[in-house]
Amino acid sequence: MVRTYQRKTERASTPPDAILRAVKCVKFEHKSIRGVAKDFGIPFRTLARYCQKITDEQLLSEGSSSLTVGYTQHRQVFSKEQEKELSTYLKRAADIYYGLSVKDVRKLAYQYAVYSNNSIPNSWTENEMAGADWFSGFLKRNKDLSIRSPEATSLSRATSFNRTNVDMFFDNLQSVRDRYEFTPGNIWNMDETGVTTVQKPVKVVARKGSKQIGKMTSAERGTLVTVAIAVSAIGNAVPPFFVFPRVHFRDHFLTNGPPGSSGAANPSGWMKESNFLEFLKHFVKHTKCSKEHPVLLLLDNHDSHLSIDGLDYCKANGIVALSFPPHCSHRMQPLDISVYGPLKKYVNRSCDSWMTDHPGSTMTIYDIPGIVSTAMPLAVTPANILAGFRSAGISPFNRDIFQDEDFMGAYVTDRPLPNDLSEMQASPENGSTGMLNLYPSEATDKTTNQAGSPSTLRDAQLEEENELRAPNIAIYHANEPTPSTSGISTEKNINLVLTPEAVRPLPKAGPRKGNSVNKRKRTTAILTDTPVKRALEENKSKAKVKTGRIMLAGKKKTKQRTPESSDSEEEETYCLVCVEPFSNSKSREIWVQCLVCKRWAHESCTDKNLFLLVITVIQMMN
Length: 622
Known about the structure:
Nucleotidyltransferase, domain 5, Wheat Germ Agglutinin (Isolectin 2), domain 1, 21 helices, 39% helix, alpha/beta, single chain, six-stranded mixed sheet, three-stranded antiparallel sheet
């Protein structure tokens, strides 16, 4: 049968109940077959055939549901229950961001059929995959499946967006809202995005059949300019703040830019701590916030946002800074949800228009403000801003905006805590994903990461490992509808139907390491609170100590010990820590030189007396 068969006649379409009534008229009322066929609109030979096939006992005992009329369905490899299991598996794999391609589905269908001992065509065995016709029919029989183009999602985003991180953020948000009684007009979201001088061309109308269509751009690779925007929960927006890839900022950089915009310079073009402080001054200037009229500023955990000077400025000017959970801005930050997508689209269109209006010219970073000025009124609209805050559950406040289906991406790394951490509270600091019961068929104690007793976690982990080794089986009891085919019968009238997960288990990360703690991993926090700010200051001071150690070990002393190396006391070199002369060094002993004071020290001394050495270097620098 062709793949896209369309019925052209009404043959073999008589309802079964009409056939039964006609046969009863012939047999019980003793009417002629030709006359009854004419009255019911049934072909004469069709009615005669059913009168011979159906007995009187069948007419009295059976109904129309047991009578088969017309063409029967062609033989299928899988039963309805098996195809349902296969469809469920494919949707589940896509929900956890490990969806299967068309070729993978065809290979899985072949392996599933062999594993279930189903009868398969010879072409399946030769190619070791199902045919294209089977896949086309499978999609037609399962209307809730379609071929989609997935969006690239990093592992960090998929696993960090979990129930624990989201609940922690909403707890902090509710705490600051209750503490300061913020209105929607005082809730702001700030984020940066990059705009380059090379746009992504939009679709054009061209000659059909051409293998390649080009569109003029400014250069092969563009130069990045960072644009920072802040929006409020009532639809207002602060003029943009630009960070140009230059050493010094000049006012003419903002020619033709949006009214009220400001800018700064940084060689990399990215937002740095000093630039963030300047943005805060720009933000305070336009929002008129103060200690008497505080505002809430929602931002991500970028390093530039954790500036101590910036947080001090926030506290002095009535800005309460609350950070999002790491790698969750694509689902929780209003600007990322509904503003920056349209902005990028309109920026590309504006760049195309600029290239058309300036033929033969190259776009520079000084043209970016004018392009952003054209695109912002079209993208940064009150409707888009309000939609972003509403979709994130920030305003109106709705901590239940995300359902369990939204956290399925964290299923892969959702596993019990190790035994030595079982008594610790599950939190993002110890790697917990805080997943709830994603699928009703799974046990809750195996999918949650709540802390429990060591024996409970150990039993759950062993049970999960055994489940991965054993085939995944769906059980149908005797009092339930049993599968008609492809079942494996056992005792006591219980049928077992194998599922595709037995052939291709869903991806699952291995057990957690016992003592692995990522000290740099951040979480959502009220950054302007004193305890959080003190912790950031301690981390910054530790980072400076480490930087000083790296600077100290920047150069090695390679000269060998010779009698002439200590001719006079003035030419002698002494260790910065132990004050031992270089002339007493052992063979092949390594010395390092400080890049600041140009003095030397034993490499072993720098390891043992790191603190003393850093203090010495700092004193010399001062």
